[in-house]
Amino acid sequence: MKYTRLTKEQLEELHQEFTTFLATQSIDKAEWDTIKKEKPEVAEQELDVFSDLIWEGVLTKAEFLEHFSKNHIFLFQCFDTEVKSIVLKALVPEVDFLTKEGVQWLSDNMFTETIEMKVGKKVFTEERNYSLFQLIQQGAFLSDGQLFNQINTIIES
C-alpha cells in the first residue's frame, strides 16, 4: 500500500465510488459480502487498492496545503516538480495560531517585527504525490490557497 487506508468514515462517505470501483472488477454486493466473510484478506486488499486510488486522485489535484501549529503557519503551493512555501513564525511566545485570537493577532501584526516570514522553494526529491502525502501525515491539510495567495501577493508587490 502506497498511502494509508481510508478511515471507516471516509469509506462510508465514498460508498458510491467504492461500489463503482467494485463493479469495474465485476464484483456485486452479494459477491462482496461473500469475499468479506470467506476471504477477509482479499477484502482488505480491495480496500487498500481503493484507498490508494482515492489518495492518488486527491493528491494529483492538490494545489495548496496549510499547516498550523502554536507559533508557526506553513503555507504551501504545490507544482509538478516543486513546492513553494511561506512560513510565518510568531516571535511573541504567548501567541497561539490554533485559536481565533491568534489568527486575528496575525492579521493585526502581519508586517511587524513580531512576525518572522520566510519564503522558500523545494524541488521534490521523491514522487510529488508521496511528498504531499507526507506533509499531510505531518498535519497539513488541503486548502483553497486564499491565505497563501494573499500573503504572496503582498510579498511580491
Automatic annotation (TrEMBL):
It comes from the Bacteria. This is Histidyl-tRNA synthetase. InterPro entries: DUF6495.
